[in-house]
Amino acid sequence: MAYEVTYIPGDGTGPELIEATRRVLEATGVSFAWDVRQAGVDEYEAHGNPFPDETLASLKRTSVGIKGPTTTPVGSGFRSVNVLLRKELDLYACIRPCKAYAGVRTRFPETDIVIVRENTEDLYAGIEFERGSEGNVALRKALEALGAHVREDAGISIKPISVFGSERIVRAAFDYARERGRSKVTAAHKANIMKFSDGLFLEVARRVAEDYEDIEFEDRIIDNLCNQLVSRPAEYDVIVLPNLYGDIVSDLGAGMIGGLGFAGGANIGTEAAVFEATHGSAPKYKGLNKVNPTALMLSGVYMLEHLQEQDAARRMEAAIAAVIERGERVTYDLKPNRDDPSAVGTSEFADAVIEEMNQ
Ligand code: NAD
User: Fold this and answer.
1) Final residue of a domain: which of 201, 226, 256?
2) Is the pLDDT assigned to residue 73 strictly greater than 90?
3) Residue 224 and residue 237: Cα distance in Å, rounded?
């Protein structure tokens, strides 16, 4: 039986990246019934809404989506499709494996970590009070009454971290580790300074860890974690973090494995899971059949794992890794010299992966 999957091409280079990914996914032999739905700036320009109701309805119905990147124009009143998606589907866990593949130029070739980022709370919750606003004045007054002085000319952002939010993200990290045969979860925090937000996160993490005796647990203060990741990356496995630290460490991880072109991801929620690359729509390369589809292809691998198609996932990942390691039929960014005339396009990279898989 075919898996029904919501298929969102996105904009910029999204359509060409997802087309390359779709062909490789189909070549695994797994059957898909793609429900093609639109989102992004092209959809906004055509019909006035970057995230149509039908796209959301499709994701709620199929509960699995694969998505090309979508542009968020700066200063246009246009709301980010990704923020809307996360909110509407309560996609609370952002899972970003960062593995350095042989053949990629990186100073951290032993990196093989998985970043599990909480996606709904923390300083990202959007609870902010502009300097001088009515809410800001009222909040400062309330704080003053509690003995906390905040300067009159301060803007204020609130950092809520709940037991509920911490527990479900830490469980997601341990469940991921258990399902994938990984042996350790590290919780990152700044509990020594933010005792009641990060401290709570750490306290919940320690309690949840007791339910997973088969998996080692440790914690690290976030600044120390960053230092250690770039000095001893092999010591880390699954890392679970509150939202803001997770955002920053995801990009650190992408840098360690050779760049955004290799960073795939999964956004997992209570109602649905959406698979997409970490990078954006790279609009300057739109329509040029040039950019590297690896990150979206790896997101496709994670989708296969989510669908319990482990064998297909393993074959697809191995084929991508082999093409990268050989370094012949790869995109410009994977060549030692970016002007190398032997670089192939997005679509030809997909051809190479399909041939590799069919061998
Ligand atoms: P970007 O990731 O689109 O591109 C930055 C640069 O990285 C590109 O110019 C290119 O040189 C390189 N790059 C990115 N992906 C690549 C690939 N697959 N292969 C080779 N090189 C690649 O970042 P940006 O320019 O900051 O953002 C462009 C738009 O994308 C913005 O509107 C942003 O809001 C949006 N965005 C969307 C998502 C998403 O949909 N998930 C994520 C991040 C950014």
Assistant:
1) 256
2) no
3) 16
What is the per-residue pLDDT across 320-357, written as a single tens digit (0 to 9) for each? 999 999 999 999 999 988 889 999 999 999 999 999 99
Question: Ligand 1: which residue has its CA nearest to atom 42?
Answer: 280
d(CA 225, CA 188) in angstroms, rounded, equals: 7
For residues 168 and 141, membership in a common domain is answered with no
Distance 280 CA to ligand 1 centre (A): 3
**What is the position in ligand 1's atom list of the atom closest to the CA of 81?**
40
Q: What is the pLDDT of residues 207-259, one digit of tens each?
A: 999 999 999 999 999 999 999 999 999 999 999 999 999 999 999 999 999 99
Total domains present in the chain? 3
How far is CA 88 from each of CA 63, 189, 208, 269, 315, rounded to the nearest angstrom? Answer: 12, 27, 27, 10, 33
102 lies in some domain? no
Is 35 annotated as catalytic?
Answer: no
Q: Which of 60, 141, 223, 311 is catalytic?
A: 223
Which residues span the domain enclosing 198?
Answer: 107-121+161-256
Whether pTM > 0.90 for this model: the answer is yes
- Angle, helices 14-27/310-326, rounded to nearest 10 degrees: 120
Please indicate whether residue 237 is annotated as part of the active site: no
Q: Are residues 90 and 222 in the same domain?
A: no
- 308, 204: one domain: no
